[in-house]
Amino acid sequence: MTINTSNHAASNVDPSEIQKFSDLAHRWWDPSSEFKPLHEINPLRLEWINNLAPLAGKKVIDIGCGGGILAESMAKKNAQVTGIDLSEKALKVADLHSLESGVQVRYEKIAAEEIAEREAGQYDVVTCMEMLEHVPDPSSIIRACASLVKPGGKVFFSTINRNPKAYLFAIIGAEYLLQMLPKGTHDYEKFITPAELTQDIRNAGLIVDAMKGMSYNPISKIYSLNQDTSVNYLVACTRPL
């Protein structure tokens, strides 16, 4: 793991958000821990990404990779994967797990905006999942993703819609009633509507290709991809040639 400690790395980060995930970092790869939802949704998002942008042989960067769940799964698809995050503890966990699993991923502590300046246009695929709702300026992250991807390359985002249903399901339901996530994981004011996200995507020079909703059935305890974007949703984009 490479650690970059420049001042710019802290320009678009909420220290309390970094601390929140750093405190839980040692539990990242425990499928029964607070990260259980990430383990359960990962096969769905991986399949969706791989169907739209076959990963084998591609150069990929995962923005806000945390403990490396998605990054490792993409590397298992024979992609050359870089994972970046600003939580040093999470990256150390990711690095250790990579060594234990034998799945090679390059991890670096660096801001998305900073690596976008250094490695502009070098990636076939850029992923930024479950991160935009945790930063002060999501549009800055989106611009960085657009800069990182090659012309013709694909960018994938996922986040949470902002409406009463999303508040009920993502905060009241997931954090308080079902206790699937630690209380305080999400801040409703940072949720992003599809209209806001697609506008930022277009402003960054990307084209929206597809949008999918992700739902959780509390009875069957199964996640699924569908057309319901009212709570969790994913967006696929292309950088024009």
From TrEMBL:
It comes from Undibacterium baiyunense. InterPro entries: SAM-dependent_MTases_sf, UbiG_MeTrfase. One of its GO terms (biological process) is methylation. O-methyltransferase that catalyzes the 2 O-methylation steps in the ubiquinone biosynthetic pathway. The keyword Transferase applies. It comes from the Bacteria. Pathway: Cofactor biosynthesis; ubiquinone biosynthesis. It is an enzyme of class 2 (transferase). One of its GO terms (molecular function) is polyprenyldihydroxybenzoate methyltransferase activity. Belongs to the methyltransferase superfamily. UbiG/COQ3 family. Its EC number is 2.1.1.222, 2.1.1.64. This is Ubiquinone biosynthesis O-methyltransferase. Pfam families: Methyltransf_23. Coiled coil: none annotated. It catalyses: a 3-demethylubiquinol + S-adenosyl-L-methionine = a ubiquinol + S-adenosyl-L-homocysteine + H(+); a 3-(all-trans-polyprenyl)benzene-1,2-diol + S-adenosyl-L-methionine = a 2-methoxy-6-(all-trans-polyprenyl)phenol + S-adenosyl-L-homocysteine + H(+). S-adenosyl-L-methionine binds at R45, G64, D85, M129. Keywords: Methyltransferase, S-adenosyl-L-methionine, Transferase, Ubiquinone biosynthesis.
